[in-house]
Write a structure and sequence with these properties.
The structure holds 2 protein chains of 2 kinds. Chain A is α/β, with parallel strands linked by helices. Chain A folds into 2 domains: 45-172, 3-Layer(aba) Sandwich (Rossmann fold), CATH 3.40.50.720; 176-447, Dihydrodipicolinate Reductase, domain 2. Chain A contains 13 helices and 16 strands. In chain A, strands 15-14-13-12-8-11-10-9-16 form a 9-stranded mixed sheet, with helices on one face. Chain B is of the alpha+beta class. Chain B has 3 domains: 32-168 and 176-250, no CATH class; 258-402 and 494-551, no CATH class; 405-487, no CATH class. Chain B has 19 helices and 19 strands. Chain B has helices at residues 2-20, 62-66, 72-75, 128-135, 156-162, 170-173, 181-189, 193-200, 258-264, 283-286, 291-294, 314-321, 337-341, 344-348, 363-366, 420-433, 447-460, 523-526, 553-603, and strands at 38-41, 97-101, 106-110, 204-207, 234-237, 247-250, 267-271, 274-277, 358-362, 383-390, 396-402, 405-411, 414-417, 465-470, 473-477, 483-487, 494-497, 528-530, 542-544. In chain B, the strands form 6 sheets. In chain B, strands 8-7-9-10-11-17 form a 6-stranded antiparallel sheet. A 5-stranded antiparallel sheet of chain B has the order 13-12-14-15-16, with helices on one face. In chain B, strand 2 (97-101) and strand 3 (106-110) form a beta hairpin. In chain B, helix 16 (420-433) packs antiparallel against helix 17 (447-460). Chain B is flat. The chains are: A alpha/beta, B alpha+beta. Chains A and B meet through strand 1, helix 1 and helix 2 of A and helix 5, strand 12, strand 13 and strand 16 of B. Strand 1 of chain A pairs parallel with strand 16 (483-487) of chain B.
């Protein structure tokens, strides 16, 4: 301690608390995490959310963090729960929002909209997206574009007819970590060398069917009017043929889209194996397990890609691994699972570490088991380099921002309908391959409209 | 203005509606002293009857389950639930919650009540969500844990996930020996506000954590699909407790068991001179009373706080009414001035004062009764007792005391606390790095570490003076960036009354005579209290204990010193009286002699 001194302090507690309160509040509340609706300005966009279920809530949460977005309407056929909850929540954020059960009534009454966010079950994507475009709205449409290629085609055609912007909800396309990996690491630095193999998975634990409170059940005539036989089907539509596409579409679609993007290609063929092995097939019409192998012909050569989605075990979660003769990129929307691994014979990556493209490995490569003689045939795990890009935003926020900025003319869409359609073709054919038990070939013209 | 008038009218009408409302079945006792049996259905937040085999299962709602027979609206404005209601008189100081962050060197007494000396959580950027998840385990629901007007937009989604903690009737009225208050604490820490009351009863188990769920978690999702290690809150009822109609037997009581009170209102005292002042229990409880017999309430749940003017105060029972068979104290030899200048608790409550204050551990501050309890004698937060101070009536009374320890910026000679999250982010990693000792006390600090910490914060607030205030010490860097400490009186410590455990007459101060207090070495006037120094080498770590008594120390010592001569004085008085008696006897006999002589002369 250097010195001590006594001072006469005239500040009393009341003054202290008063000033503390003011200063504290100023410092703390400066950055508001969620944005309140504010007075209109030219950059503001009026939007409608169609579908306020689980995915709609995710998008709504992200959009509330984006300035300049004004919710004007919400559409959901589950009036007593989803719709009420979403409207109440948006009003809390001071959005002047109205709730509708039917999207047609909404389009007839709401004349001040710029864009629609479609987060309904897959089989409703095409009718909703097309109607919105025809009403003059730009559309953010959740993936999968549709549960049928016919539906997806209708969206593409409507987009071309109306000229409206359509962003398909493959949100990894706007994720800064994915964009950095593709543009910087794969394309520019070519860290992986020639990609020869891809491996990916989305494994989930066993889940009970989604339930609902009986007192909030949707009346049967409403359910039937909108294509559902009962509440169970409404809540668990992803498992039903004609409504969704099963796990390969719900989950695999995100990752197979990345296969196509990073390989800059579309597959030539797919062989797939799967079935409803675990759940009750009467309520789980789509396959609970799918293992698929793709062949890609890229400009660098043949790439063989494996993908699996299982819904009975969550081991290793979800990731995509691109393996080249110089290294491996493992990436996942969940940041903790990402890493780069250099092949032993590849040139050192020190330069890329210096350039800030990579973060150096934190730990040395694991040594062989103690006491064991080194077996020359054993391949040691390579050191793990880390991505320097961190994403702290909700996963969907950058993709939504890209959509809104595209409407404002500031950016190009990261996932326009043509890209979404290619992915839809890639994915929907997997179910075909499982059903037929045959190798399915993709014709190049199938990916184009 | 119109809006304000409408609001006032609305509030008035609501109050009027409450008062006019026909009493519900359980609102007024019918005179029968037996405990009514509650064979009832449990209702969830949607008023749906809970059947244990349904899916999905929700926790039961106390508002919906108990509300049909008990006026929930009135009860939820009771003393235990109305701390954040600015319209409610804060009343006498009470126990605060203490925001503690060991590695950030923060110890701040908090309350939503405007007691002098506490900090309002909102002023420090502590949201209702944060406050509830940190302290809600020791609150019986309602109030801050359920008041939507306190919920910031920032946390709106989180409140949707956690739900509100309704008034937890079971926290007090559950007479089952299996009621688990520690489980309630655990659930609140997991932000399972909606589930906590259910989980604390013996009717159900709740697993999972709302804290781990994403913002858009929905009650009816059931699971978090891609987070296998993050289990959502799920409730499982004991199906054996339900009959075919979905009714259960609840073991509830009007006469609250002491254990229910103890969980939040326990304390222990530690002092080097007396290792542990064990709970010897309050003399009233030993005599067969229950906490709630003095701390009564009616339907409005305005708990009697034992204030002097109340029917069940010390004064009223022991000096006036004799209620509960309270013995009238004889106070033999006690000059009446004591009853005018000193509160009953001074002589009868808490541990016997020693030369230095005790370190007190309290339920609210040290999470007693849970696996999180801070057990070391010197465990933070540092609360001292008994500290004697003048109360609002001007009487000397014993108190608990906690110094605030906080980081602040000096602006125009006043202190502005730096937001707690910011301090945590910057300071905690620095302090934690060198903290290898397994202690619950402040981490071991040295000048260099404190200098680095101040300097690091100063870089965030350039051109401003950053200080660490701990007790009477204000640490800062001078213009040469040297660590400096000044003595300061701002902020003052927070004191709140110590009333329990009550000691019987034989153990009261003064039972051994006046010198229990009136001697030059008696702790009452001469004990020391600890300063909150943070750095172990800062001098003057002990301060005079009588600084809050507002007495003249010299006068007190002078008066005490008179007791050295009082035994001699008695002898002098006796001799004086003996002398007086001798003179009296002498004159008596002289008078007799005079009378005899006069008689003799007349006869002659």
């Amino acid at each position: 301690m250097s010195f001590k001194e006594n001072t006469d302090n005239s500040l009393n507690r009341r003054q202290f608390l008063k000033k503390s309160a003011a200063a504290g509040a100023g410092l703390i509340f400066a950055p508001m995490v969620m944005t309140r609706a504010r007075a209109n300005d030219s950059n503001d966009l009026n939007v409608v959310l169609i579908g306020a279920g689980a995915e709609g809530s995710v998008l709504m949460n992200s959009m509330l963090k984006i300035p300049g977005i004004r919710f004007k309407a919400v559409v959901d056929i589950w009036e007593k729960y989803n719709l009420r909850r979403a409207v109440r929540l948006l009003k809390k954020y001071r959005h002047d929002v109205r709730g509708y059960i039917d999207y047609r009534e909404m389009l007839a009454k709401e004349k001040d909209l710029d864009a629609a966010i479609v987060a309904t079950p897959d089989f409703w994507h095409a009718p909703h997206a097309v109607a919105c475009m025809e009403a003059g709205l730009h559309v953010y449409c959740e993936k999968e574009m549709s549960n049928t290629l016919e539906g997806a085609r209708k969206i593409v055609e409507a987009q071309r007819r109306t000229g409206k912007l359509v962003q398909i909800g493959h949100q990894r396309r706007s994720n800064p970590r994915y964009r950095f990996s593709f543009f910087k690491l794969i394309k520019e630095a070519q860290l992986l060398g020639r990609i020869t193999t891809v491996n990916g998975q989305w494994n989930r634990s066993v889940q009970p069917d989604l339930a609902w409170p009986e007192k909030y059940a949707i009346p049967e005539h409403i359910l039937r009017q909108y294509g559902f036989e009962n509440m169970h089907q409404f809540r668990n539509w992803r498992w039903y043929k004609g409504l969704g596409g099963g796990p390969i579409v719900d989950l695999g679609s995100h990752q197979l889209d990345i296969y196509n993007w990073f390989l800059e290609s579309v597959p030539k063929s797919v062989m797939a194996n799967g079935g409803t092995d675990y759940y009750d097939p009467s309520t789980h019409e789509w396959y609970d397990t799918v293992l698929a192998t793709f062949v890609y012909q890229t400009k660098y050569g043949t790439v063989r890609a494996f993908y699996q989605t299982i819904t009975t075990n969550s081991n290793l979660g979800y990731f995509e691994a691109f393996m080249g003769d110089q290294g491996t990129l493992q990436i996942s929307e969940s940041g903790g699972r990402a890493g780069l691994y250099r092949e032993q014979m590849a040139p050192p990556w020190d330069r890329f570490v210096e350039l800030g493209y990579l973060k150096p490995p934190k730990e040395e490569a694991p040594k062989p088991a103690a006491g064991a003689l080194l077996d020359v045939r054993e391949t040691l795990a390579p050191p793990r380099y880390e991505l320097p890009v961190v994403m702290r935003d909700p996963y969907h926020k950058p993709h939504l921002e890209n959509f809104f900025n595209a409407i404002r003319g500031k950016e190009k869409l990261n996932c326009p309908v043509e890209v979404g359609y290619e992915t839809a073709v890639t994915v929907l054919k997997v179910n075909e391959a499982v059903a037929s038990g045959r190798k399915i070939y993709y014709r190049p013209d199938e990916f184009k409209i | 203005m119109k809006f304000f008038l409408l609001l006032l009218t609305g509030v008035y009408l609501l109050q009027a509606a409450d008062s006019l409302q026909v009493p519900l079945l359980g609102d007024q006792p019918d005179g029968n002293r037996a405990t009514p049996i509650h064979h009832i259905k449990l209702l969830d937040q949607d008023s749906s009857v809970i059947y244990p085999d349904e899916h999905p299962l929700l926790p039961f709602s106390t508002q919906k389950t108990c509300g049909p027979c008990h006026n929930y609206a009135v009860i939820s404005r009771g003393w235990h639930f109305n701390a954040a209601d600015s319209a409610v008189d804060a009343g006498r100081q009470g126990p605060p919650f203490i925001w503690l962050n060991r590695h950030a060197l923060i110890q701040i007494p908090l309350s939503y009540r405007s007691w002098p000396g506490v900090f309002n959580p909102q002023d420090l950027g502590i949201t209702a969500l944060h406050f509830t998840s940190r302290f809600g385990g020791y609150m019986p629901g309602g109030g801050v844990a359920a008041d939507t007007s306190l919920q910031t937009l920032k946390n709106y989604w989180r409140w949707q996930v956690s739900g509100q903690a309704e008034v937890n009737c079971f926290a007090c009225h559950d007479a089952s020996p299996l009621y688990d208050a520690a489980e309630y604490v655990d659930q609140m820490k997991r932000q399972n506000f909606r589930w906590a009351a259910t989980a604390s009863t013996d009717l159900a188990r709740v697993e999972g954590s709302a804290r781990n769920m994403p913002d858009n978690f929905d009650l009816y999702w059931g699971v978090a699909p891609d987070e296998p290690r993050k289990q959502p809150p799920t409730v499982t009822y004991d199906a054996r407790r339900f009959d075919k109609k979905g009714q259960v037997d609840l073991v509830l009581t009007r006469k609250i068991p002491n254990d229910r009170c103890y969980f939040c209102h326990s304390q222990k005292f530690e002092n080097n001179q007396r290792q542990t002042e064990a709970l010897y229990d309050d003399v009233h409880l030993k005599a067969g009373l229950h906490c709630v017999e003095c701390h009564q309430n009616k339907l409005d749940h305005q708990i009697d706080r034992g204030l002097a003017e109340n029917e069940n105060s010390c004064e009223n029972c022991h000096l006036n009414s004799g209620r509960f068979g309270a013995p009238k104290p004889q106070h033999k030899g006690l000059p009446p001035v004591h009853l005018e200048k000193v509160a009953c608790t001074t002589c009868h409550s808490g541990p016997q004062p020693l030369n230095t204050s005790y370190l007190a551990h309290t339920s609210l501050a040290h999470e007693l009764g849970t696996k999180y309890a801070h057990r070391e004698a010197t465990a933070l937060p540092h609360i001292q007792a008994p500290v004697f101070a003048r109360n609002a009536q001007g009487k000397i009374a014993p108190n608990y005391m906690a110094w605030p320890v906080l980081w602040a910026i000096v602006r125009n000679d006043s202190l502005s606390p730096i937001p707690l999250e910011q301090v945590d982010e910057v300071i905690s990693p620095l302090i934690a790095r060198g903290d290898s000792l397994p202690t619950e006390d402040w981490p071991l600090l040295n000048d260099s570490l404190l200098t680095t910490s101040l300097d690091t914060l100063a870089q965030i607030f350039p051109q401003q003076q950053v200080v660490l205030v701990a007790g009477t010490n204000r640490f800062f860097l001078n213009s040469q960036k040297q660590l400096t400490v000044q003595q300061t009186d701002v902020p003052e410590p927070y004191l709140w009354p110590l009333a329990h455990d009550v000691r019987p007459a034989a153990q009261a101060l003064g039972a051994n005579g006046c010198t229990d207090c009136h001697s030059l070495s008696a702790p009452f006037f001469n004990s020391k209290i600890r300063n909150e120094t943070i750095l172990s080498d800062v001098q003057a770590s002990l301060l005079p204990g009588n600084r809050f008594m507002k007495i003249n120390q010299a006068t007190a010592n002078l008066f005490s010193s008179t007791f050295l001569f009082r035994p001699l004085l008695k002898i002098v008085v006796v001799l004086f009286y003996l002398l007086l008696l001798a003179v009296f006897v002498l004159y008596f006999f002289k008078g007799i002699n005079y009378l005899i002589n006069q008689l003799n002369q007349q006869q002659d």
